[in-house]
Amino acid sequence: MSTEQHARGPHPTVQDVVDAADSLWPFRLQESWDASGLVTGRPGRTVTHIHFAVDPVDAVVREALDSGADMLLTHHPLLLRGVTSVTAGGFKGKAIHDLIENSCALLCCHTNADAARRGVSDALIAACGVNPDDAAPLVPDDADPRTGLGRVGTLDEAVTLRELAERLAARIPQGVQGLRVAGDSHRPVSTVAVCGGSGDSLFDEVRAHGADVYVTADLRHHPASEARERALGPGGHGSPALIDATHWGSEAAWLPWAAEDLQRALAARGFHVETSVSELRTDPWDFRVEAPQD
């Protein structure tokens, strides 16, 4: 071991990283249907470099390996649904083979990172301009009400709906979709609710908190249409307005936080590790076509 490595501390093992991740984003917080946790990697193998990304797709695996990473930490699980084969002829099997053959572990932190403090939704509400320390979960965890799905909080100063959308567009990664917005662009908004990723199951909680605007992703036509009708109908008071980001973009804002927090947590345990954050856009859409102008 080099003198520099002695000064910085030893490298952690795969299990050390899993334990540190569990301290930040407890795996017990994951939803019952989720598959967060260690996917590949020997627990005792040394980790020198962790690469962070949203999706464990082929390009990300290649990016991690090219960077010299021996652990890839992704938000989305690789094996969320059951599989009967991991042959390298399939894209999931190929990812597993490439990772194992290059001694790169894969750790997934999905809905546990959604629910935890300084997780995905905290990063998203911070991008809106709300101090995440002052935000509350939309759906608090029974055991720890400081954690849970989504966040709701209040801006220091009200802004228009358009100003909030423009702020978000500048602060979170963008796909070709951009941001879709439902509501009067000039209306003032102050109370903001967010849920990184697909959040149209939380409309009732958003309304119960009296949010002026709801920022999430993957809004389907019928839930969004019904939410809009309820907002604009009798007694609706025009709330909440909707800002629909890309699924990937709403979650990618968390990656720099995750890299910093995990590196710090390992340092507190006496370990040194390098980190890097993916620069790839893994939103699945490549381009959009505008309607022709008359």
Automatic annotation (TrEMBL):
Molecular-function annotations in GO? hydrolase activity; metal ion binding
User: Gene3D superfamilies, alphabetically?
Assistant: NIF3 (NGG1p interacting factor 3)-like
* Superkingdom of source: Bacteria
Recorded protein name is GTP cyclohydrolase 1 type 2 homolog
Q: Which SUPFAM superfamilies match?
A: NIF3 (NGG1p interacting factor 3)-like
Q: How does it assemble?
A: Homohexamer.
Keywords in alphabetical order, please. Answer: Hydrolase, Metal-binding
Q: Which organism is it from?
A: Kocuria varians (Micrococcus varians)
Q: Does the keyword Hydrolase apply?
A: yes
Q: Which family does it belong to?
A: Belongs to the GTP cyclohydrolase I type 2/NIF3 family.
Q: Name one GO cellular component term.
A: cytoplasm
Q: Does the keyword Chaperone apply?
A: no
The record lists a divalent metal cation as bound by 75-76, 114, 247, 251
